[in-house]
Amino acid sequence: MKPNELLDWSDKIFGAQDRVTVPEELAQATLTRQVFSQRQLYETMVEFWNDHFNISIEKGDCRYLKTFDDREVIRKNALGNFRDLLWASSHSSAMLIYLDNQVNRKGAPNENYAREIMELHSLGVKSGYSQKDVMELARCLTGWSVKEHWWRGDFMFDEKQHDQGTKQVLGLEIKPNGQGEAEQVVEALAAHPATAKFIATKLARRFIADQPSVDLIN
User: Fold this and answer.
1) Do residues 62 and 101 touch, judged by C-beta distance below 8 A?
2) Burial, 196: exposed, middle or buried (Cβ in 10 Å; 0-12, 13-18, 19+)?
3) CA-to-CA distance for 205 and 160, rounded, in angstroms?
4) d(CA 101, CA 113)
5) DSSP letters spanning 69-123
6) Is the dihedral of CA 76, 81, 82, 83 positive or negative?
7) What is the per-residue pLDDT across 45-71, written as a single tens digit (0 to 9) for each?
8) pTM (two decimals)
9) In degrees rounded to 5, what are phi and psi of residue 199?
10) Which of 44, 70, 75 is nearest to 57 (CA)?
11) Is 194 helix (H, G, I), strand (E, B) or coil?
């Protein structure tokens, strides 16, 4: 089901909502696949990336949006390349709501997702980015939001809420380009050497040793 279909299915008469069934079915489906699938490496990578791009179903509409994120972001890209996975996650309605980017607007930027995409999803902590980079990326991400009415739960870009000024992120000059500004930064994050080291270290820890050698990571 699409996000709006999952929401409609959860809505009951007189405004009541079933907040349990959709996330419980996701948990049941996840466990069933992990136990019975003959593609065990794939299921291990699905779990790895769901942990890496963590989203709590307890926050707002994430209770049903995470089901869509699990299918279209994580499972679709679990054995692909990291750039595609980071790109899909950055456009995920569940991720944007979980990290408050739907309230990130010009004149009142919210830095939560901008910080987490660098610290937790790509570059890693102490990798050279600054608070200024976080603030500038938050400006790039203004207007990245989630539809609330027709096709509720789909990603949307609200140009009226976007900061149109020039930004500077990680030494890059980001010219006014609407939705393309943050997408330019996502591409840069995916290709950054610090991201390669951070992800390779996490993979080596998951599959080989808690303290992998520098040669192995390299």
Assistant:
1) no
2) middle
3) 44
4) 6
5) HIIIIIIHHTTS-HHHHHHHHHT-HHHHHHTTGGG-BTTB---HHHHHIIIIISS
6) negative
7) 999 999 999 999 999 999 999 999 999
8) 0.95
9) -70, -40
10) 70
11) helix
